[in-house]
Design goal:
Length: 109
């Protein structure tokens, strides 16, 4: 009878230890695993960063669409771009090219 009681107590202790160990393992996996608390935080940060990037790209896309619209419809924009990028001038205009002269050539001020 005493041996049986000791055996039951040992089994109960072993079962409790096993349950505590399994519970601790589940808790650690819930906190640290890919789908645990740390994983959720990491996914949330990534989601926020991607949302910010999407917003930025949409704004950039909007600006590019507006630029494309102006290039299709606004002659002044086309003229400005041609002047800046291609160096074009209107008929009758004169182009002056001014070059910097280094001051170290002995010229007095």
């Amino acid at each position: 009878m005493i041996a049986e009681t000791r055996l039951r107590k040992s089994v109960k202790r072993l079962v409790r230890f096993g349950l505590v160990w399994v519970g601790a393992a589940i808790a650690v996996a819930g906190l640290v695993g890919d789908r645990g608390l740390a994983g959720v935080w990491r996914a949330r940060r990534q989601s926020q960063e991607l949302t910010r990037q999407i917003h930025q790209l949409r704004e950039e896309n909007k600006a590019l669409r507006e630029t494309a619209r102006r290039l299709r419809e606004d002659p002044a924009t086309i003229e400005d771009l041609a002047r800046r990028e291609l160096g074009l001038i209107r008929p009758g205009e004169k182009l002056f090219i001014i070059r910097d002269v280094p001051t170290s050539q002995g010229l007095s001020p």
